[in-house]
């Protein structure tokens, strides 16, 4: 097996130069499992990416929170995948539910972004997840498999993809999915990948969970066999993010 535990910190639209320095200082001083045991990726807003990249310890990587769907040009306000590559930013988060909901990014648009970013050599954290209404209507698997299918239809190689299952009802709400709820969806996603992509991809792709992860709930979630890590929002701005990184050690038990 050997899926390396993955912990991403999505800072969303937060931070000042001084706050960024403070968070990076905490990360740089932390005693965490080695890069063999956990892959840590920090995702500040675009404007802070060069600052974070310059200051951050070398065993942690950085990610952008978005990228334009094709080659740059006359797209005011957008940031292209080529620019991220030029700045040596290795990762990008795509399809976050906040962008899907607020900026009306469709499954197809997100999939086009994933395909384009991969084609430029970026590694992608691709986000999927259902709303509360969809969960209550029993549509969770339909929704997440449609989101995943849109991506699967447009990419041939999953090596540089991490799939982030982030139920919308759990994001920023303090209402975390139970370990059983997360495990069920992750396991179903793996079965979907077996049936629709390949058993090799199903076995090797990391499926991480996001939505109100904190120091208090991360260990139990990390203990689930199909939870390969986390995408953390609010808690990634706080020192407790270190404890979340350390939950990687649960996999060794
Ligand atoms: O959206 C998320 C990470 O991308 C999760 O956010 P919270 O951890 O703040 O719920």
UniProtKB/TrEMBL annotation:
Pathway given in the UniProt record: Carbohydrate biosynthesis
Domain of life: Eukaryota
Isomerase among keywords: yes
Pfam families, alphabetized: TIM
GO cellular component terms, A-Z: cytosol
GO molecular function, one term: triose-phosphate isomerase activity
Family label: Belongs to the triosephosphate isomerase family.
UniProt protein name: Cytosolic triosephosphate isomerase
Natural source organism: Ceratopteris richardii (Triangle waterfern)
Upper lineage: Eukaryota, Viridiplantae, Streptophyta, Embryophyta, Tracheophyta
